[in-house]
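Hi, here's the filled form for the chain we discussed.

Project: internal
Contact: R.S.
Residues: 156
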Amino acid sequence: MAKVDSEKLRSLAKFIVEELSESEKKQLKSLLEAEELSVPVSIFKNNLSALELSVRYLKDVKKLSFKEISKLLGRKYSTLTTTYYNSVSKLKKLKYEKSRFFIPVSVLKKSKLSILESIVSYLSVEHKLPTKQIAQLLERSYETVKTVKRRCKQKA
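And the returned structure, exactly as it came back:
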């Protein structure tokens, strides 16, 4: 396969994206996010913390090591092992379903924000979802999500 000039490829991609409608751009973005290592929003319906659920999904479903998860999430190895084993004692099997929305793992690494704050912020900013819909997706109360959004703005 011939080597393609990266600048040429970038300008071609930019041209293609400019020709897409807004709905096609959203669809393309969703497809690209699904390709990146990501976590389905549906896992957050389980009754555990956002960190516990993220670690469980990456360990049990994606079969990543604690060392890999530690690098991805920017958290200490020991914190993640403790979090994982605590979550196993609380919830035997992680339940999740096909999801319309995915959270890229890179979003969860934001050091200023908690995992839940990162998720709420991402859904609010990138997908422009209203607070009520985010609360429904995460199966959290409206008030909880509203408070999390307020904290994100304060930390920004």
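Let me know if anything looks off before we file it.
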